[in-house]
Amino acid sequence: MAGERTEKATDKRRGKTRKEGNIPKSQDLNQAVTLAAGTYIIFLFAPSIMTKFIASAINTFSHLDPNLISREGLIGYFTPHIYLLFDILTPIMLLMMICGIAINFAQVGPYFSLEPLKPKFDKLNPAGMVQGFKKFFNLKSIVELVKSFIKMIIVAGIAYSVINSYQQEMLALLGADVQLSLSLIGTVIFDMITQITIVLIFLGILDKKYQAYEFEKSIKMTKEEIKDERKDADGNPEVKAKIRSIQMQFAMQRMMSAVPTADVVVTNPTHYAVVLRYDTQIAPTPQVVAKGVDFVAFKIKEIAKHNNIPIIENKPLARTLYKIVPLDGLIPAELYVAVAEVLAFVYKTNKNKGKIR
Predict the structure, then answer these.
(1) What CATH superfamily is the domain 240-354?
(2) Strands (E) located in the chain
């Protein structure tokens, strides 16, 4: 069918969709990499975090005086703890943000656009809301729902598997030292998140391929759209024809205006007419200032007669001049003798016009 989208998208269509913010990327891969980065960053800073928390707790409880605690003094009491949280979280959040930017850059390349952030008021009208409601139940939404359900099952399965593998060690923690308990719990959490992120990154890579496939499918074009785009690129044929027509009219007017200033018109005698002018102040050799065939040749001869320009019949010379000498072009060396003979004849028979200017 003519309206089927069977053609690959052109570079122009791809550029337009990219400008609109429609780029194939996997949010699952972004989330998996960000989760992995956040986990390892937290474990990397864990010794420093623990040291700061312990120092803060010791300082707090060492100077704790219930008589000094009041409703007005609570802000001052909690301020050091707020600064501590800010000090701990700032490097972690910055590193996670850098990782998020890096994975986005890896997926979409150097791209920045505010187009997706622009408000789309057409979605607020009832028709747009109904359309959006329909899109909520399309195949893509169902696929996303199934993906989320599968991820939830995988995460729950991995968590159960890891906890089950440490079951004996965790039971042995009853009555154990706090530091030992925290160490084992940290190991369990680290192992659990490591396995989860590995699986999620693998799923994210598969999702990236799926998103690329869906993107290519969504931007396919119909044969008619391809034709329209080519018309836009090449220019509308009707407009181009009109431009050519106007250009030809200007060229015709310019040629006809040059005939009254010429020295001679060489004809064959009916089909070809070539107008020559020899002005040493303009060009060193005779010059073709106008030429034409059939109707144009007839008009050239008509203007020449009206302005008393000599018309010389020379079939071979007229055809040769028309074919090899462009408009405003100079006579080539191989035609010097033939053209000189014509000009000499003109100067001899018509002294008023034949005089070299």
Answers:
(1) secretion proteins EscU (3.40.1690.10)
(2) 264-267, 272-277, 287-293, 311-313
Cis before 269 (ω within 30)? yes
250, two tokens: 């200007």
The structural domains of the chain, with segments of one domain joined by +, span 23-218, 240-354
Residue with tokens 């747009």: 128
pLDDT in tens, 225-264: 878 777 766 656 666 777 777 777 777 777 787 788 888 8
- Dump pLDDT digits (tens) for 170-196: 777 776 776 777 778 888 888 888 888
Q: CB atoms < 10 A from the CB of 262, how many?
A: 25
The two tokens of residue 323 are 């074919």
Question: In this predicted model, what pLDDT tens digit does every residue of 108-138 receive, in sequence order?
Answer: 777 666 655 566 555 555 555 555 555 555 6
Q: Which two tokens stand for residue 157?
A: 């399965």
Buried b / exposed e across 35-55, counting CB within 10 Å, b at 16+?
bbbbbbbbeebeeebeeeeee
User: pTM of the prediction?
Assistant: 0.49
